[in-house]
Amino acid sequence: MTDKTLFIHAGGPKTGSSALQNFFEISAARLESLGFAYENRLHIEHDYEIGSANGMLMYELVLAATTTDDEIDSVVSSYFGQCDNAICTSEYFSEFSGYHWKRLLESSLRLGVKLKVIFYVRNVIPFFLSAYDQIIKRHGGYELFDEWAEKAIWQHGRALQIMASVLPRSSIQVLHFDNERANLIKGFFNSIDADAAFEINADDQKRQVNRSLTNEEREVLITVNKALGAAYSKEVSELLIYADPNARGEPVSYHKTTADSLLDRYNTEVNWVNNTFFNGQAVVSVLPTESIKETPCQKLTTEPKQKGNVEKQVLDWSLEKLKTIKDETEQTIMDAVYIAAQNTLEKSHPDIPADFDVLAYLLINRDVLHSGVNPIKHFIDHGKREGRAYKL
């Protein structure tokens, strides 16, 4: 390969990656006409779908301890298709160690491919506010922001320090998300020197993917997470976000003491980023661009009717989920009874009481029901000895 460039979009986390990735996905044919391949796509069902990064194949392969150099070279080559330029994107690249970046760099050198890593860095507190919502949406979080922030980490500084320790400075391009977000897609294409005539319509430019939560959505999700843990946080959050994908997120309030603590923790790291990638200019900061005000608690500002709509959506989901669980349970019972019915010989076993009720045994002994074992055989092997009930 010669005169080829692999553009690795490595995030960082919470910098509009999902919106960029969905645009790449739905515009793959147009990108190819400009000479930029977007291969190994995951294919999305709608424009707001979360999780369409084509870089997962690369990430998982480089991360695996048993991957050979030839295998890495092969997957790098697969991203080019018929083009001289390739776009490979995943926020997970920001988790690479120096060793992983070294392997990717060495592969590009073997193939004669120019490696260019594009990384968006975000101000610390805005990053934390967005990451906090992500924990609520996808991982069942329900802590107060001020408590959560004490333990959370600004991943951008560390990721950039690791890259800078391995990759040539000329291979890393850092963009300030807080300045770029209004024209995120156009800015990305400017950074890769794409044809300036490439048109991006207004809908694509303003599309929010994996948006932050409104106050009402956050309050409802925290309630759900407290009750159900992480089991349904992703499902419920997607229900709310997909129902109103263009709603404007409302950052949670926080105490000034939290801002002061984050300043102490990250000021040195932020200065390093500015000195290394922005010629010492104070581009990246710990604080948001707007002034902060101490607000002791989150306050709801939306009309009650809007809150009611959010709660109704979750209630409707709950009823549907209960129906699904009911249907699944009924099917499990039917399957178990059917299995028992096929074993007519076992029903005449001397250890089976004449009044043995298969259905009652399953309903009383839920572990037997959910294990899927033959209830008659279970009673013979275990139930009688354990004194299990078999009549309602």
Automatic annotation (TrEMBL):
Matches recorded under InterPro entries: P-loop_NTPase
Question: What name does the UniProt record give this protein?
Answer: Uncharacterized protein
SUPFAM superfamilies (alphabetical):
P-loop containing nucleoside triphosphate hydrolases
| Domain of life the protein comes from | Bacteria
